[in-house]
Each structure stands twice: as C-alpha cells, then as structure tokens.
Design goal:
By secondary structure, the chain is α/β, with parallel strands linked by helices. The protein has a single domain, classed as Flavodoxin domain (Rossmann fold), CATH 3.40.50.360. The protein is 43% helix and 19% strand. Strands 1, 2, 3, 4, 5 and 6 form a 6-stranded mixed beta sheet that branches. The longest helix is centred in the C-terminal third of the chain and has 21 residues.
Length: 192
C-alpha cells in the first residue's frame, strides 16, 4: 500500500510539513510505503480551464499542455491508495500551490473519476482564522473527485508549536487512512 503526502507549503520545514510527517510516520508504522511531493519543488502552470473553454479535460489534454511537470505528479497520485494533503492557511483557504494542484487535478475526475476510492486526509496549519474554511474547500473538491475519508480525516494546528492534540489527530489520520484502505479492499460499493 502506498501513502502519498502532498505538501503545499512554500517553506521547506513548515508546520504543515511537520504535521504531514507525523501522519506519514504513523502510516509507515501500519506497514505502508510512504512518499512525499513538495509542491514548492514543481513549477505547475495554472489550469487553462479546458473544461469550460472546449469541454475537453482529460489527463492527455492536460499533459499535452504541460508535459513532464504534471506527469510525475499524476503518476504518483494515481499509483497511491492514500492521498494526504497538507497546507498552510492563506487568506481563509489553501496555499496557492495547493489550490493550483487541485485545479489541475480536474482532468483526473472530469470524464472518468480516476481518483475514485482513494482514501484522503487533510492537514493544515494557520496563524489566524481560516482553518475550517480551508479544510471545507479541500474536502468538497476532493470528495467530488471520488476520495473517501476515514474517521478523524483532518487536523489543524495554530501557532508555531505543534499541540499534543494536533499530533494525536495527525497520527490517527495516518493510521486510520491505512486501515480504511484495508477495510475497503478495493470494493467500490458507492459506484453508480
């Protein structure tokens, strides 16, 4: 089983990154292979809105525009059973890096729900308000893409130190995501 962490922070060692590491370590303890993508290391061009412009929004069309930059990320997303998204809160929402990726992921769900049945989780850090809005934005988009969520599917941390509660929930998320994949066993009972 492969668990992919997607780090949407523009900082290398951010609070979001630390939360993600706790969740990934916990998943690894459950026997999962873990991988991480730091979005700051990729120059992902913005979505061109192909679905609105000409109605064609497929991975092939998306890759035709931006080639190798997205190919590696899409391959990681598609080959993983668990996708954990970590972001700081910027102006009551996810970082621009994370929002850009979510927009580009539209091609993975428009014609075919290629992410259907993958288990998801959300971790965010913040200094002021906006954690619940950020989590809601990500949850709505990811749920519509077909991701399913375990109990305790998100956590958030305020400030420059990780709280004990946040660490507990990040670790629970890592464990619960792996256990949920095992309990689903590839059976998509929710498909139409």
């Amino acid at each position: 089983m492969k668990v992919l962490g997607i780090d949407g922070s523009p900082r290398q060692d951010s609070m979001s990154s630390l939360l993600l590491e706790r969740a990934l370590d916990s998943a690894k303890e459950e026997g999962a292979e873990i991988r991480i993508i730091k979005l700051i290391n990729y120059q992902i061009p913005p979505c061109q809105g192909c679905v609105s412009y000409n109605g064609v929004c497929t991975p092939e069309e998306c890759l035709r525009h931006d080639g190798q930059v997205l190919k590696e990320i899409f391959e990681e997303l598609l080959s993983s059973q668990v996708l954990l998204f970590a972001t700081p809160v910027y102006w009551f929402g996810p970082s621009g890096l994370m929002k850009n990726l979510i927009d580009r992921m539209t091609c993975l769900e428009h014609e075919k729900k290629l992410l259907d049945g993958k288990v998801g989780g959300i971790l965010c850090s913040y200094e002021e308000e906006g954690a619940s809005t950020t989590i809601s934005q990500l949850f709505l988009a990811l749920s519509d893409m077909g991701l399913v969520f375990p109990p305790y599917a998100y956590t958030y941390n305020r400030g420059k130190e990780l709280s004990e509660d946040t660490v507990f929930y990040a670790e629970q998320l890592g464990k619960n995501a792996v256990k949920m994949v095992r309990s689903i066993k590839g059976i998509h009972w929710w498909n139409r």
